[in-house]
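Supplementary Methods S3. Input chains for the assembly prediction are listed below.
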Amino acid sequence: MSEAVPGERGAAPSPMGGGLATANAPDLRLPLGFMGLGVVSYVLLNIVVALSFGRMQAFYFRNPPVLVALHLLVLGWGSGVAMGALYQLVPVVLQVKIFSERIGKVQFWFFSAGLTLLIAGFWRFTIPVIIWGATILALGAYLFIYNLVQTLRRVPRWNVTGTFLAAALGFFALTVTWGLVLAYNLRYAYLGRSVFPHIGAHLTMGALGWFSLLIIGVGYKLIPMFALTHGHKEDLARKLAISFPAGIGLAALNLLLGGPRPVTLVGLLVVVLSAVLFGYDVRGIMKRRLRRTIDLSLKYALTSLAFLLLTALVGGLGLALGLLTGPREVMALVYLGLMGWISTMIVGMMYKIVPFLVWYNKYAPLAGKQKVPLLKEMFPERVATVGYYLYTAGVVFTALGLVFGWAWAPWLAAAAALVFAQNMIAIFRA
Amino acid sequence: MIEAAQVTEQLYGVFDPELGLNVVDLGLIYDIKIEGTAVEVTMTLTTQGCPLHDSISRSVEQAVMRLPGVERVSVNLVWEPAWTPERMTAAGRKRLGW
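Predicted structure tokens for the full assembly:
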């Protein structure tokens, strides 16, 4: 398989039955709770966008439906699924137990309660509720990061995915912290006009630092695994593990310090170039894959990469040519990046992770003794394929619709979200 | 008297749940040793750090255990020699889209 881990070859044969992976895997309810939070948030956010479309085309600043949809997306959906997936996969893939499952359960409740308050606060724009929500949510997030950092410190064999993950966690901490800064600013107004670059830094660190680094790092492990690509070299990945965080850090830092705009653009340019190189590397992985057929998850993953490149190029050109002036254009670009790149990848990965989660707990003990389903037999494939086309159309038309005012477009995305939720329930029941 | 061919036949029914391919056609089974009523299967997996890794080796153990006349099974999971796609059978390759 991939040359990822020096020294892992020649490891002692694993004992049969109840091997390392079972011993390390956490209680099912921990990752499952987060997946549930993710799916519920995902459906809700799509409904909010569809119902409040008109208001979403206005200026984003302190605009309740924008804030609600955005934070349901990045906190409930994106971060929720990320946390659930990491709790399940880090032990199994990196062969190390989660530092504390107890902390995991506690932080789940803080995170969920904080998010609920935050969303309620945003919806009515009630500042004390926003601040309470942000504070409790931040506590939940910091506990998660602490838990993961302590876990990662015990990983016996480091690899490039670990580096991406560590950087992503760092940016998650920073993003949440800046969210707090912005929340308290509502009450104490210490930022003044520089609230806008702070919002920009918050978005950059979150979308690029937390999510993108996480997806890319995990992608380098998962894409060759699922595509069955053997022996892909990690050299480029190691370089990108430096260039990506460097570009993101430069852009974010410059925004926070109020430095000259070209410096931010240089940082973003480094990110854009790194994204293109990542796309090139994935192309290499796909070319040498042994699994010729592209299954549903891989379809979603490749689509998400296409959106990444599209966002990077449109964003890059837009910034360079000064086209991103109006609120509609900015919203469309943000939507393209968050729903096109990040959300699409999450959906694709969920179609792998959730069947695995359920299968591992329900069917692994029975495998070999009786007939057990394949992972892909746990959900209706044809329905899921229709869902994929609905989804992609939904993203494309809603992004365009934000610019041209097509209020019908987000209903496509909402329909896709319901198909997805239905499939997740089907898997759970399989 | 158990024979290696019987064991192999049984293992055609053990699947990698993600790939949807059985462990024999995948080329994961390296060796089958039989001593009386004890069977030892030496096998590998397509990738280290595969989340399903212990489930697959456990299914192999369970499946062989079900054969009449088998009283003891041990599964020896090795990483050398490393699995390569060349180890797949023609049927296996076809299933993966070749």
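Chain B is about 30% helix and 25% strand. The beta strands of chain B are 15-16, 21-22, 29-35, 38-43, 72-77.
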